[in-house]
UniProtKB/TrEMBL annotation:
Superkingdom assignment: Bacteria
Acyl-CoA dehydrogenase/oxidase N-terminal domain segment(s): 6-117
Descriptive protein name: Acyl-CoA dehydrogenase
SUPFAM superfamilies: Acyl-CoA dehydrogenase C-terminal domain-like (SSF47203), Acyl-CoA dehydrogenase NM domain-like (SSF56645)
Protein source organism: Oceanobacillus piezotolerans
Keywords: FAD, Flavoprotein, Oxidoreductase
Cofactor dependency: FAD
Record-level Gene Ontology MF annotations: acyl-CoA dehydrogenase activity; flavin adenine dinucleotide binding
A matching Pfam family: Acyl-CoA_dh_N
Family: Belongs to the acyl-CoA dehydrogenase family.
Annotated Acyl-CoA dehydrogenase/oxidase C-terminal domain residues: 225-371
Length: 385
């Protein structure tokens, strides 16, 4: 594979960078965190006008028909600006799953709206203790005539209050693997939503309660009781996208730390001349380049469905998550006491990094997944503890 952006991808990167700068760059997550939710509406409209909502939607439904590699430069730029919103869940998770597993009616209903920016998706995965496994999915879907009636609750649902539609894994049988995926439209369902405390204020987390919520059987994604396998497919795309997004954050951290080290003076010289500071920045840069290589390869492996795709994504997710947290922490150390203040941008990256630390599994979980792939013991992408 080519470890560099091609001409088309470079165009996407420049366009995304210019667009986000025009919208305020790092002021976007700051304003959203302060309660100015209209900035997210404005951002979504702009991304739709650029055609970015339809990147992974086929041309027959108004999209561009491209794959994970095309998303890489867009997601990196979004990571550099710590952008809020369910873009990743919509474009890297929902769109590919509906394209691959959706019925003709579901594709007709959702994909064109998704590509135009008129339909926002997120995924409601976690319950109870926050671990994702078949045994921890207990939102019960009871069949009644031509409907499923849902009871239970999902926690830590990213931007559920902003999304139009949720993809929800539910229990449809008594066996451990009897999991199905339902597409739940928020406007036609009596959902109860409650904001939850989140370390990263730019990633709003919502608890969604289902109290006898009726969902037509036509909203079943794929076949009944096959939802866990389908979900693993979607999580591969979700993790690959978040890896590229975190690489963008790493890149911006290196830029911020380097600029500060070259301009902040102590004892009559820039602090970047001090060994302790230089070493931290070098480590950040090395982490960045390693992370970028792994993220590019994971996206390439996913797009080309290589034999080592699960291993590639797991390696990328484990290393990049830890590198992002370490570099974000070191960046605050480089800035000293001022690095902890609201006025500096350092905290935005550390909060985002920590909020993703155990999302969809911890770095340790993914290292165990790599081991399983290497020894030939195929397990699901999300490990059960």
């Amino acid at each position: 594979m080519e470890f560099a952006l091609n001409e088309e991808q470079q165009v996407f990167q420049r366009s995304t960078q210019q667009f986000l700068k025009s919208k305020g760059d790092l002021e976007i997550p700051r304003e959203y965190s302060e309660g100015k939710e209209e900035v997210l509406d404005d951002l979504w409209i702009g991304l739709a006008e650029l055609g970015y909502m339809g990147i992974t939607v086929s041309e027959s439904y108004g999209g561009l028909g491209m794959g994970p590699l095309t998303l890489v430069p867009i997601l990196e730029e979004m990571g550099r600006a710590v952008i809020p919103g369910p873009y990743i869940e919509t474009v890297a998770f929902a769109a590919p799953l509906i394209e691959k597993y959706g019925s003709a009616e579901q594709k007709e209903k959702y994909l064109e709206q998704l590509a135009s920016g008129n339909r926002k998706f997120t995924v409601a995965l976690l319950e109870g203790n926050g671990e994702l496994s078949p045994t921890n999915i207990n939102v019960l879907a009871t069949q009644k005539d031509n409907e499923y009636v849902l009871d239970g609750e999902k926690i830590l649902v990213s931007h559920a209050d902003f999304a139009d539609t949720l993809i929800v894994p539910v229990r449809t049988g008594n066996n451990e693997q009897d999991i199905s995926l339902l597409i739940v439209d928020c406007d036609s369902s009596t959902l109860q939503m409650e904001k939850q405390i989140s370390m990263d204020e730019s990633r709003k987390m919502i608890k969604v309660s289902f109290n006898e919520v009726a969902v037509p059987k036509l909203q079943l994604l794929g076949d009944e009781n096959t939802g866990w396998e389908i979900l693993q497919d979607g999580i591969q795309g979700l993790n690959t996208a978040w890896c590229s997004n975190m690489v963008g954050g790493l890149d911006r951290i290196v830029e911020i730390a380097t600029e500060y080290a070259n301009t902040r003076e102590q004892f009559g010289q820039p602090i970047g001349r001090f060994q302790a500071v230089k070493h931290k920045i070098v480590e950040m840069k090395m982490n960045l380049e390693t992370a970028r290589s792994l993220a590019y390869y994971a996206a390439w492996a996913l797009e080309n469905n290589t034999e080592d795709v699960v291993e590639a994504i797991a390696m990328a997710r484990s290393l990049i998550t830890e590198s992002f947290i370490q570099s974000a922490s070191d960046n605050i150390q480089v800035h000293g006491g001022m690095g902890f203040t609201w006025e500096f941008d350092c905290h935005l990256f550390l909060k985002r990094a920590k909020s993703l630390e155990n999302y969809l599994g911890s770095p340790e979980d993914y290292r165990e997944q790599v081991v399983s792939e290497l020894v030939g013991n195929k397990e699901s992408l999300i490990l059960e503890r």
